[in-house]
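Example record for the data management plan.
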Amino acid sequence: MRMRMFPLCAAVAAAFPLHAAFAAADQATAASSPYSFATTPGRLPKNVVPLDYTIALSADAKTHKIAGSESIVLNFTEAADKIQFNSLNEKLSKVMLDGKPVKSVVSDDKLQLTTVMLKQAAQPGRHTLSFAYTGKIEVEPRGLFAQEYVKPDGGKGVLLSTQFEATDARRMFPCWDEPAFRATYQLSVTTPAALTSYSNTPVTKRDVHGASATTAFARTPKMSSYLVEFSAGDLAHVDGESAGTKLSVVTIKGQEQGGLEALANAKQILADYNDYFGVAFPLPKLDSIAVPGGFSGAMENWGAITYNDQILLVTPSSTMGDRQEVFSVQAHEMAHQWFGDLVTMGWWDELWLNESFASWRAAKETDLRHPDWHWWESEDASKENAMRADARSTSHAILQHVTDELEATNAFDPSITYDKGQAVLRMLEAYLGPDTFRDGIRRYMKAHAYSNTTSADLWSALGAASGRDVGAIATTWTAQPGFPLVSAKASCDAAGKRTVTLSQQRFLLQGTSSTPAHWSIPLQIRSGVNGSRQAVLFTDDGQVVDAGRCDEPLNLNADAIGYYRVAYDDATLATNTKAFGTLASGDRIALLDDQWALVEAGLQKLPSYLALASAMGTDQNLRAWQQITAALGSIETDERGTPGHDAYTTYARSIIKPLATQLGWDAKSGETPGIQHLCRTVIEDLGAWGDQEVIAEARKRFAGFVADRKTLSPDDQSVVLNIVARNANDADFEQLHAIAKSAKNETELRRYYWALMLVRPMPLADKAAAIVMSSEIPQQAGTLRLDLVMGLHDEHPEMSWSLFTRNVDALLEPFQPNGPFMVAQYGPAIFWNSVPLDQLETWVKAHVPAEMAPQIARGMETARFRLAEKTMLDKAADSFVGAQSARMN
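Corresponding structural encoding:
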């Protein structure tokens, strides 16, 4: 599953972890055990195991009702008189085993269990359970749900689709809804005849009977229940083929052309993955289904991936950023067809085996196929998001204890389960070598196809391929929370040869931890400007390594590959700062990341970071400048309303204005997408920080856009509209609002309405806030409403908080069942400057279940850190800028 990082998530760079308190030793023990069906956790008994489902159902979108029947082939491993499986909001009837009525049936929606008692114990072997049932079609994206949308011609339509991960297959059909219970599925569904139906496997038969049609699908391979998929609607598709696999991009009718780029992507990605994994995609077809709204992200259903249409379709309104997101999300979901579908984690505490690997392989694929995007450099941002979340004392390990499957939703944590896991895997790949790592992955796939695994199975495969004890290294990263700060103290001999003495501590948001923690750290060391990387495994404090010459710069995280911070001694830092402009891009990124984090934690002074930022000059590296402008922007936000704000923004503009002048407003022939993105980034920041020349040029271009919408490309629209919005008067607002209301599609709608939220005068902000919950935002774009609240927060945190709290249920409806976790963990981290923290915490506690206490603790830790950081940064920035001014005078 790909959870789209909407602004609320991105702003705090964290998501939905589970429990803070559990023993790392217990996790390590669990991780050391290979997969075993018998010992895998879960609530369902393992003495009755499903082998094959035959499911026939009728879905009525008008009444939101399901009527179905099931026949399930079961294997009794021992004599038993009780059968137990999952169900929710369903009523069973005509329940029989081997054609004979059972003794009793009890369905408990609170426990989400159905218990069938037999008249006498069934003997070991195969038996068939059959029943009829009724259920309901949901309005939220869980189970089988109905998504209303506006057609391209303006008419209204309804799409049926499914979202089962983690525990919602049971909402569409009663089943053994735990990942270890792999079985085959044969599905047939009756819908209105005007609708076209899709599922995991090809259609084998379609019978039309009057106004209805029954579509039957081929039997699936053995797979977990959460991967079953069904969609039906007024749909069309574009299709192609790759290595014998039929590929289709499915859209609502009239939008098929928007799927052409995704289709081309899928051909390329599938061919690459067939080769990399050493196991060809095993299904005869792979559909990519664009859902108009419905849920935020994508879901890797085997052979029938569903996507929010905004991250699958590319239209003339799409930007380069949109196209990049489409490719990377496709690469993520298609990686799941192997990591997650062909081989599935045994239980939800091993979810990272699905998500971290899909994230890592997607980044690798995107970088491979689009080298001019410099994707691994851009992925540094996701790594930094993970490290910011993981630096909390309340963070959790990649491996999380999940007591039962009803807690599984909590395990979806983009910052840790996705981003940290991805970073750790990249670090391990660099240490073992890409070819060796790939060979280990191929062993893993071939050994565990159509089955389940634990981390131990993966480490075993990588260990066999490399000849190293990979598990001993990896479990120090997966079985405990946090990450290390590596401290480097250099010594020089008479000839200038340098050695470095290493030590490590756990890094925290506000310093380091005194609690002992230890990692086996695969360092990547580079001495000098053009030196090659040297891999060194750092295992013991006091370890001494050779590190080139003392007059050369030194990087212990070359190319920013490692998931750790580095603190250099003063002399080495001074050498690095002096040579900063000549360093490799990845080394500069690593230094900027670490030095800013050390400043935020109070372990270094602000001028040490600003010296690096100033040394960038006009070098055109996108990720390095994104890091710098984000840091400068954080200080600017904290300075708002203080006497030092104007002096600070003058200084901040001086850092980036030379680069903006060099780049100019208009793209030049031969520029990479990254350079063009960099140009827009620094121009928009200058406009936000009061550069009058930039604001005047933005107004000029805006006037042209008002007169003729063709004067600005989709890529250039946001920077112009956002600058004008931040400096808007009444007339500007009305023009911006008119542009938003004239949006031709959802891509434009999201871009234009976002700009409206950036206005600064309070009367205009009131008008913007009134739009958020209005009918101007169509239902299929429901996820946009929360984005708009977050956009409003930038300039008006109190108003944003009021709007959020008054409409919290409606705002979070498209994100269910994750809403409570978002409130508990995101809420405090976002709204720390909106209301007093005690009031904030009281409101959050009143709006989430009591078991969300760990998430609240994480959110409140971030909130308290941000409040303390604001005080620290304001003082440090004022002191620095004042000293700069005094020197100039």
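Summary line stored alongside the record: The longest strand covers residues 48-60.
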